[in-house]
Each structure stands twice: as C-alpha cells, then as structure tokens.
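Worked problem 6 (solution included).
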Amino acid sequence: MPTRLITARVVAGGLAFVAATVASVASAAAATCGGSYDSFLIKMQRDAQAAGVSAAVIGTAFAGLSPDQSVLAFDRRQHGMFHSKSFEDYARTRVIPARINRARRLMAQHAALLSRIERQFGVPRELIMAIWTMETDNGTGDMGKLPVIRTLSTLAWDCRRTDLFQGELIAALKIVQRGDLPLSDLVGAYAGEIGQTQFLPSSYIKYGVDYDGDGRVDLRHSVPDVLASTANLLRTNGWQAGAPYREGTANFEAMREWNHSEIYRKTLVLFAEQLGGRP
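Solution. The predicted structure is:
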C-alpha cells in the first residue's frame, strides 16, 4: 500500500491501512472543508488545474458527483485493527496454508519476472509475494469496488483529514490524465486505495513503474507493474539489498512506508519466511 498515513488504510481481509507521511501533491491552498459540497468541488477544480490537471479530465471526473455517506460512516467507525490483537492472533488468521500454497505457485509461475525485479530493486521475492498476498490475495481478493474520485472527494470534503485527501484526490485525477487507468476503472477501497497491492493515489504517482512496457502504470491488471512498483516503493524508502529485514533492522524500518504497524510488518516477515525467505 504506499505513501500512507497510519490511518490511511484499513486492514480488512488482506488490506492494511498503510502510510507514512503522505507526499504533497498539490501546492495550492487547501479548499475549505465542510459546508457546501458543490462549492468545495469548485475550489478543488481550481486547485487541480493549478496542479496541472486538464479542465476536460476534471469536468468528466467531477460530473454528477455527490458525497458517499457510506464512506464517511466507514471512516468514523475505524478503531484500528491492531490495537486489540497480538501479533500471534493477527498472524494466525493471515499466514495460513491456502495463502502460502497459492503464493508458492505464483512465485514459481512468475520466477523470471521476480528474478528481474529482485536484481533491479534488491527486494527479495518472498517479501514481494508476502505483500501481494496479504493485500489482496494476489489480486483474487477484494481490491475495492468504490469509485475512487467519489470516495476521495467525500473524504476531502469532510474536515477530519481534509489536507491528506485533497492531495490524494488530485493525485487520482493525475492517474486518469496520465492514461494509467480510465475513469471507469479507477475503483478502490474505502480510502481510495487502488490495485493489487493497494496503493493510495499519491503513491501510485510517486512509486508506480511501467514494468510491462505498455506505456502506462496499471496496478489493477498488470502483474509486472504491480510487483515492480511494490519493490520500488521499498527501495525508494531505503531498502538495503541483501540485508536482513526482521524486527530491529534498517529494512524493517524501511517497511514503515508500507505500514506503520509493527504487527503487520512482522506478519509480512513471517509470511516471507514461510515462503523460504531468510529475513
């Protein structure tokens, strides 16, 4: 999941609310949250254009938008998956034989791709596979079905974390403008996370890699793009190739950009060990 705030991704199924400090996407003054949603969108339209998004993309994306009350309700009832669970309790429900077996099959299927990524980015294949499995069961699980623009505009309009989500909204518009995903395919989870390893839009822009060479970064459908982008996030945040990554190491700290929770990161390490990794 990528440039993420500790409250910016919820662990549900294989997902985790992940984030460190969210990179600033828009330098314009923040739109005023609360009040009229339509007035808020007008200000966001100006901010998005100032950030380089075309009026045509914004007009299409904002057409007919209304707040999604289910998104606000979900956001309000978050209490944190990890506050009430021990590492043992959490890992017991996540690192299970069915997942391990599927991850092993996919690791063999994508062996050449993973070798190339491992050489280029220095991140071990077992950890990449652990993340891919934990997040969305390797793209077979729930990647979210909510329109990302509506989700993010709702959270940006709300005053609880408006600065964060105003930036994410502009980043999502940039994903459309770059041609990475069409608006119809820009769907995600309850905080706007996108794709098979659940990148927030700002991380999509910052860390996304076109690894299949088709001219766009597709983190929903392209396995090469998904796995390389995941490795790129870790490398960019200080991953040291060949070094250990258990708790207490520099690489374990580099994984904070993926998820602040030590329990979640320890579970990723355990998963990687089960796949034959040597943390």
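Discussion: Confidence is low (pLDDT under 50) at residues 3-28.
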